[in-house]
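Chain A, query sequence.
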Amino acid sequence: MSTKPGQGRRPRRQAGVTLIELILFMVIIAIALGGIITVMNLTSQRSADPVRRKQALIIAEGLLEEIELARFSYCDPIDPDAGDSEKVKSSADCHTAPEAWGQGGAEPVNDRPYDNVNDYVAAANTLTAAFNNGAGQLVDANHDLLDVTGYTAQVSITPAALGPGDGVVGTAGGASADTEVLRISVRVDYDGQSLVLDGYRTRYAPNSL
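Chain A, predicted structure.
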């Protein structure tokens, strides 16, 4: 008995997906896309605008440089012995006005740039808005308003130590202004973000006025 080719075989099942499978696929993709979009939104909201961050860095660099260029002398310039390197070997040798935190009584208020690093803060390791004018606006060393919006700046200055082993200069921490090394931290706040720039100032010319 002969049969024709293909005769007696079961028909092949048609390839493809069912409607239920297609609906499930679409639901899964929708859930996945929703999660990705949520993460992207959170990331974009919490990430700093690079242009704004660059502007904050420029502000911090300028203010830090201003402080680092100030004198770091034993005596205030109003002291009669301030520039005498023979008489003055430490702050204790000043005649009437050893340098301390904050501006002295005889110094003009808000006369930036200040004549000494210590004048920018009233106490060690304390954030101070030293760059504002009387109206609380951010200004440069010439008292001109900075053409920026949404930025605030503060500074803290802390006694520090540099060098290894027996070659250490200065004293870390503490509250005394009579030290050889200061750590200067300028903090700029903007758009819910903060940027901090650190620098160091040593007393390399304690009698230079």
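The first helix runs from residue 19 to 46. The chain has two helices and five strands.
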